[in-house]
Amino acid sequence: MLHVVECGGGDLFAFNALLRRKPAPLLGIDISSSTIKLVELDRDRGGALRLLHCAIEPLERGWVVDGNIEKFDEVAEALRRLVHKAGTRTKRAALALPGSAVITRKISLPAELDEDQLEIQVEAEAAQLIPFPLTDVALDFCVIGPSSTAAGYQEVLVAAARKEKVNDRQGVAEAAGLQPVIVDVEPYASRLAATRAIERLPGGRQQLVALFEIGSQSTTLQVVRGDDMVYERDQPMGGEGLTEMIARQYGLSRDEAELKKKQGGAALPPDYAQAVLQPFLDSLGQELGRALQFFFTSTPHNRVDHILLSGGSANLPGLAQTVTLQTGFAASVVNPFDGMAVPPSIPAARLALESTSYLVATGLALRRFAS
Fold first, then answer.
1. What is the pLDDT of residues 21-49, one digit of tens each?
2. How far is the C-alpha of 215 from the C-alpha of 32, rounded, in Å?
3. Domains observed in the chain
4. Between the chain's N and C termini, which has fewer beta carbons within 10 Å?
5. Helix ranges restricted to H, the chain
6. Distance from CA of residue 57 to its chain's centroid?
7. CA pair distance 191, 174, nearest whole angstrom
8. pTM score, two decimals?
9. What would you measure as the largest C-alpha separation in the chain, in angstroms?
10. Cα–Cα nearest to 236, from 181, 182, 291, 189
């Protein structure tokens, strides 16, 4: 069953005829390979955003692999613990699939089509675009607006994912006692959250911005201008590399090294900053620079206006400065909670360590207020 949702620019929709978004309380739930993150937002009477709850729960290796939930019961139990840890009573949840699990295409269709005719046309187009039977697919679409190239036509964004992928996310949420009402796509959620940071940059949304999300095992680059994604690429690099370097340098197990990495330099020997951290930052900066070079060689662009860094490894001290030196472009770290009121129940020290991890979860939580 399809439904249409009018949306401007980069806004998206819910898969599989899930409920339309309303400004009722909503949890943003981001399930990655190493953690689950939760964010809940609200607005004050003046319309300013407030952070209500946020929390992170670790996952063991192998529970989620390449976006696939391999250990359903364990992940559901981790989500239950996360909700309890966060202290929220909200049950409605927005989740997301990784971009690799979703096929998205923009198509042009006649503007005079009514909703039923539009659904028929989208299904016909999707049958040509998708390499597996439509009966196995959760399919939805979003009317973006008038076509910029063909008079009398409108641009429609079509998205499709295997039903089993959508059902896994829904099922985990339901097993944890939640009500899944939105299934989004991770890159769209992260862009929505990053938009607040981009608007504060000189030049705002008209700038060409490279958004890097540095996870534990992979890094995603999105180059955006306004509501348009110009380029996207995944790189097999992430914070796991630093964990491995710490383990080798100091003879620690992987779990011990990961714990000490999260505790910061004070938990490691005095030579950590120069012997381990800076070499890792230099290597990471070079890899991000190579990712940008791939962008430059495959598009008409030869520069970006700014680099934004997010993800769990973006809070490493000195990363933004190293990336600026390695690439030649100004870089800064995204804190998705900048400008929000934060309750005293969330310790500032914890938020300082964790904030860069919450970009996708914050974007999902912001769906509460999307029109």
1. 447 999 999 999 899 999 999 999 888 99
2. 9
3. 1-185 (3.30.420.40), 201-337 (3.30.420.40)
4. N
5. 72-86, 115-129, 163-175, 186-199, 240-250, 254-263, 272, 278-298, 319-327, 348-354, 359-366
6. 17
7. 26
8. 0.88
9. 68
10. 291
